[in-house]
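INPUT
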Amino acid sequence: MGLGSYTTLAQDTATKTAAANQVSFRLPPEAPAPDDNKPTADRTALGKMLFFDPRLSGSKWISCASCHNPSLGWSDGLPTGVGDGMRALGRKTPSIVNSGFNSLHMWDGKVKSLEEQAWGPMLASAEMHGTQDQILVKLKSMPGYVTAFEKAYPGEGINKETVGKAIAGFERTVVSRDSPFDHWAEGDESAVTPSVKRGFALFTGKANCVACHQGGNFTDQGFHNLGLKGNADPGRFAIVPVRVALGAFKTPTLRDVALTAPYMHNGSYLTLEEVVDHYDRGGDDKENLDPNLKPLKLTDQEKRDLVEFMKSLTGTQMTITLPKLPQSL
Amino acid sequence: MGLGSYTTLAQDTATKTAAANQVSFRLPPEAPAPDDNKPTADRTALGKMLFFDPRLSGSKWISCASCHNPSLGWSDGLPTGVGDGMRALGRKTPSIVNSGFNSLHMWDGKVKSLEEQAWGPMLASAEMHGTQDQILVKLKSMPGYVTAFEKAYPGEGINKETVGKAIAGFERTVVSRDSPFDHWAEGDESAVTPSVKRGFALFTGKANCVACHQGGNFTDQGFHNLGLKGNADPGRFAIVPVRVALGAFKTPTLRDVALTAPYMHNGSYLTLEEVVDHYDRGGDDKENLDPNLKPLKLTDQEKRDLVEFMKSLTGTQMTITLPKLPQSL
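OUTPUT
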């Protein structure tokens, strides 16, 4: 589907009432899971253990949760991530919130399933710097993990597939929903302020944010070059070498966006206000800019309304209890 | 009190029944807190936020909980700690479990209150590498923290004292108790195995572990040179330059000891079995060795019994829910 049809949707959406919009912006009841990895309590519990276990890294000190910190919106609050040896990485740590609803993973979309994605940071030498053999041997050496895998995936053992499945399964439970916006969309007119309502009208109308941030998870699952000043990262182009993909990055969800500053793939904006200003300018670097970006000429009040709308997408925060980890022998 | 009297206690203890021993080995109902920092729910909640907030470090990536990981016995499972830039530190990360019962803090006892201790790792350039000014400015910039401090310490503001108090207050809630050993000491003969009971008799008798690991928290709060092979760390001597303090380190609690491998101030033993073997040999490096250490000539069964006894000191594990952290502006 090209940008034209999103624009049509946006213009159409702007004329609907909030109640009608629940059709477009309602998150499905759960993140879709593959047939061989349907969620169970045992699988989620195992995946959570793995997610919080620093022993899966080469240093034994970095866990998935070190960077995808539940207390910081499942990201890290930094412009760009931190990896092994605490060296800065090139891109902002994406929140894993609602990643179960994505069809492609990572900023450049190079990974097609969460099961596969889970291994990426564990094995990347710049990130957790583990090796698959070491990780599997380590897990098999701990009776607590042997038992947990057997309960979660009976007869499958501890292997590349079951480790990826367990972590992916846990990630699919990390969902942001039940935001003030959702309550409004479901008919509670008092759930949000007039500013939020004006912001939503701008979002789906004049500002046309919905061209990319659309659907229940507020993303088109696509890749766009937003004209960020001085960006030298090829982004999606490294995966799909066509001109339109140069400097293009995945549209992130806007759910819980108020919790995940700084913003953009390189963390170059500290606040949502700065992000709105960027779009209001129609981006900075015009070369290969997504054709949908044009100067918006928003008023200060309109900018504030857009920010208020984005803040209304902060969902009910999950209560995360730290897992007990199996003992090393 | 010198070692002589501990020996007397130990010999005396060995003849008592388990029920009688509850007097000596019962943990007080709560860790003692200074008059100006008595625990309240608001104080504990604030201290927990600070404990889990990586933004208190210079890198904004390391929190107290990065090394004092609740999922790993409030330590990190590593032989020696990891600090800023992921450089290895010189000593094992001590568990903070039951640190509220200690009168001196750090392996060398250089700090006299938990309130003061809380700042140590935050400001150490090799550890969290923060500065007090940066930390206080950062906390004051976040409305969520301003409110939380006002609730916890009304009228006191955000300053060196209240930050230390809040973290110390949270640490005092990190307590290990209600272990199988405690249940046995309280009269439940079925709470532990015969091996544990034999181990306790050895602990307080032939092996004389109780010379140092005594009282409700299984520590004499003293410093001892255990004759670890090749140890070049002066330990307590750097604080109190007397010969007996050379290479001496604080006696750690044994509560939850099964959860905090590796062992000793330098993490040189991977298992409790190796620790027991060390004491059975009477230590390795005899220079300046604590006079209480002598070869024990334990049988294999006796060694197993001592390990089983130590495992019986694993308390009921606290359920730790991750705090929501205030947003940066």
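end of record. Chain A has a mean pLDDT of 93.
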